[in-house]
Amino acid sequence: MVVKANDLPIPYFTDPKRYVSDIVKDSGSSFSLPMLLLPKHKREAMLALYAFCRETDDVADEIDDNDLSKKLILAWRNEVKLLFKGSPNHPVTIALIEPVKNFNLTEDLFHEILDGFEMDRSGMMSRPTLDELELYCHRVASCVGLLSVKIFGHSSPRIVNFAEHLGQAFQLTNILRDVAEDATRGRIYLPVEFLEQEGIADVNAKDLINTPEVANVCRKVGEVARNRFKLADEFLPGSERKNMRPAILMRVIYEAYLDEIEKHGFQLENRRIRFNKFQKISLLCKGLFMVR
């Protein structure tokens, strides 16, 4: 049974912590393994944060009815306001009550995440400018990173820059992983400046993936992502490496995705680069050696 509160569908649940844990488990994401290193209260906080991002992203990404999507994003904004008043209705935001208090999570970052999904829903991200792409990556990825590092715990102000650059690198890598899939849905997240340089800015989305020049565009996006990984390294003090272990392990996985995309010459056709569980565990072991 589903009831509604402020136009937000509320699923049936008995335990909000179990609800967000199931979302992560069902997603099959690389996210869950690095979080096992965290103590229970931090791990639960990260699961709730991931579930929030997953649920709200689906509103922008999986709902074709534009009016309904817009209405649901607004409903989530209202739910975030209720969260910071201490009276949310959804199991995800209920699971976030303790993390918000314990880790001083700020309301503005949750709204910025929703701003990013609003960019997605509005169509603004179809052949965005480089500035628009950077803003989008900041909202949907770096803001999540800024919340995450609060949960991980840190003392250096440089960690804010670390989170910003790493979030940018992660999202650009995701965009490259999804180029073919997005194109089949009429979506192009590649920056218009790079498309214009290759003379394919006006090519239909579904035909774009089959043009030889698109690999050059993806290669340029890959270079931007590489630079962001490098900048993240530069802003990570040695004294904070232990605190940032989950982020470093995620970085190992994402950079391996980028390596694999590059290995295929940025020609992904219709397949998305994925690693099986054994490959992910191998990469995590490599990452653990790096942060010992």
Molecular structure report:
With 292 residues, the protein is mainly alpha-helical. The chain has 2 domains: 11-105, Farnesyl Diphosphate Synthase (Orthogonal Bundle); 123-292, Farnesyl Diphosphate Synthase. It contains 15 helices and 2 strands. It has helices at residues 16-27, 32-35, 40-61, 66-85, 91-95, 97-102, 107-122, 130-152, 159-177, 179-184, 192-197, 205-208, 214-234, 245-263, 277-290; strands at 3-5, 8-10. A hairpin with a 2-residue loop joins strand 1 and strand 2. The termini are far apart.
- The top-level CATH class of the largest domain is Mainly Alpha
Computed CA radius of gyration, to the nearest angstrom: 19 Å
Distance between the termini: 48 Å
Oligomeric state of the chains present here: single chain
The number of distinct β-strands equals 2
Determine the CATH topology of the largest domain: Farnesyl Diphosphate Synthase
Q: Strand portion, in percent?
A: under 5%
List the helices and strands and how they pair.
Blueprint: E1 3-5, E2 8-10, H1 16-27, H2 32-35, H3 40-61, H4 66-85, H5 91-95, H6 97-102, H7 107-122, H8 130-152, H9 159-177, H10 179-184, H11 192-197, H12 205-208, H13 214-234, H14 245-263, H15 277-290
Antiparallel strand pairs: 1-2
Helix pairs in contact: 1-3, 3-7, 3-8, 4-7, 7-8, 8-9, 9-13, 9-14, 13-14, 14-15
